[in-house]
Amino acid sequence: MDIRWANIKAAEHVGNPTFVDNKGFHAMHLKFKVPLIHPNARETKNTDFLTLQADLVYERRDNSFPPPSSDSLKTTLQGIVSRRTLLVYLCGGPGAANPAFENDEFNTWFIDREQPILYLNYRGTDEQTCPKEGSSAKDLVYFRQDAIVADLEAIRLCLDKNLNKNPDKKLQYRLFGQSFGGWIALTALSFTPGGLKDVMITAGMAPVKSSPDEVYEALYKPVIKANEVYYGEYPQDKERVKTIVEWLAKQNDDKGVQLPDKQRLTARGFLTMGRWFGREKDGRKEVHKFVKMIAEDIDGSHGIKQESIKQFATADGAGFKLDKRPLYAVLHELIYCHGPGVVSNWAAQRVGRQQAGDHFAWLNDDFDFNNVRNAGLLYFSGEMIYEFMLDDAGPNMQPLIQAAKDLAQKNDWPALYDKEQLHKNKVPVKVMSFQGDMYVDTELAEITAGMIGSCARIKPQPGWSHRSIKKHTNEVLAEFERNE
C-alpha cells in the first residue's frame, strides 16, 4: 500500500468513551473507525472499515470517587487533547495487541508528569480487526506498519478536529516505541513528522538499510553465543535435547504430539525455544526447566506425560504464541522488506541453513532425526520464523498459511521509510540500544541511528537488555529524562 500521506482523512470517533475499571489508574476506552485501505497511489477503492480499540490512561485512581460519567469522560478527553500532546506507547510485535496495564511503573512515571498515555491495539490484533478467514496475500499487505502509522495519523486528526479547543496549537504525539514499536516510530518520522513532538525508542532501531538476509546473518551471531552460554550452564542438556527431538520425530509420522490448544510440538518446533534466551538468565532457566522435565518423562515412561504437555502449553513453551497471534508469523520477516525489490523468501530459514553452521543442520529438510545421536550439538534458534512453524501452529494459523507463503515471495513493497526525510529530521529523537540484543542487532541499529537527524543515543546501564523498559522501567526512563 503506497499511501498518499497528505490525503489521510480523520478517523471517526465511534460512540462515547467508556470508563476502564483498573486498580491503579483511571482510563477510558476509545473506538475509532478507519478505512482498511488508506488513500494510496494506486487509487485502490476502499469498501471496508476497521474499528480500532484504544485505552487512554490519564490519572491515578482515586477510590473515594465513583466512576465518571460518559459526559465527564468526554470533558476529560477534551481537556487532554487541548493540552496539545499525547504520549502514544508502541509495543513490540508485529501482530501483538497493546495492553494498557502491563507496566504500572511506566504508567505511573508519565501520569505523575501529567502526561496521559494512549495504547492503541494495532490493526489485526483483536477480534474486531483480525484478518478474515481465507484472507489472501493481497488483503494482508494492509496490516503492515505503514498502515498502523496511517491509523495513528487518522486518529490524531480526529482528536484534533473534534476535541481540541486550542485551535492555534494542533495536537501532537509523543511516541515511545519498544522493539517493533520503534519500527512504527521510524515510519512515522518518515511520513508524518508534523504530527510528532518527540520520539523515544528502546531496543527498536529498525535496520532500514539492510536486506532480510543481512539482518539474519547478524541475528544468528547472538543466538549462537546464547546457546554456548546455555550449554555451559547446563551441559547435561546436550544429550537431553537429543533425546527429546529423537523421540518427537518418531511420533505420528514426524508430526510430534498435539498440545491442548491444538498446536503441535514437533522435533523442529522444540528447537525454536531459544527465543527465551533473549530474556537472559531467566529465559535460560525456563528452557532448562522444560528440557529436564520432558527428557525425564521420556526416559522414565517412554513418553511425555500429559501434565508436562499441559505445563509446556500453558507457559507457551516455544515463546511465539502463534495460535493467539497468527499475524506475527505472517508479518515477521516482512518488517525487513522496507521497499521495492526486497523479498524475504524465508530469509531466517535460508540463512540458518547456509551460514549458521552444523549446529542448525536440523533446519535442513533431509536432517535425520533418527540418527541424531551421531550429529553435532543441536542449537536452539532465536526470534526466527521458519516455514514449518506455520503448519505446527494450529487451526488459527491454517487460513493464513497460503497468504504467508505468497507474501514471502512478494518483491514490490512500498517504502516503509523516507531515508532523506530521516536524514533531515528535526523532531527530537532519543534511542537506547542494547549490546548483544538477540532480537535487534546492535550494529545495524547504530547505522540507523547515525543516519537520523536530531537523534541522541542514550547509554544503557550494564546488564540491561531488550526488555529493560519492562524490567528496569524507572531506571530506563530516568536515563531518558536525564538527557533532556
Automatic annotation (TrEMBL):
Keyword terms, alphabetized: Hydrolase
Superkingdom of the organism of origin: Eukaryota
InterPro entries: AB_hydrolase_fold (IPR029058), Serine_prot/Carboxylest_S33 (IPR051601)
Statement: the UniProt record of this protein carries the keyword Transcription regulation: no
One annotated GO molecular function: hydrolase activity
Family (UniProt): Belongs to the peptidase S33 family.
Protein name: AB hydrolase-1 domain-containing protein
Organism whose genome encodes this protein: Chaetomidium leptoderma
